[in-house]
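JOB MANIFEST
job_type = single_chain_structure
chain_count = 1
residues = 68
[input]
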Amino acid sequence: MTSLHTHPIPRPDVARGHEHGWITESQHATSEGLVAYVRCAGCGARRVDLRRSAARPPEAMTGVVEAR
């Protein structure tokens, strides 16, 4: 039986809550290291990363910019 006086159960936004899978669109060397412009293969969000050395993982230089 349904009631006219209930509210829907809120659900988390799955599209924004996923783990991004970053792919490199372009990159170039700088005095700080390798700057890479990356895009999420799943949702299209973008970010700029910096890799200071091959032995270290990239660091996010910017926040995530969601795709429109």
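[summary]
Strands lie at 22-29, 34-40, 46-51, 59-60.
Residues 33 and 55 are 12 Å apart (CA to CA).
exit_status = 0
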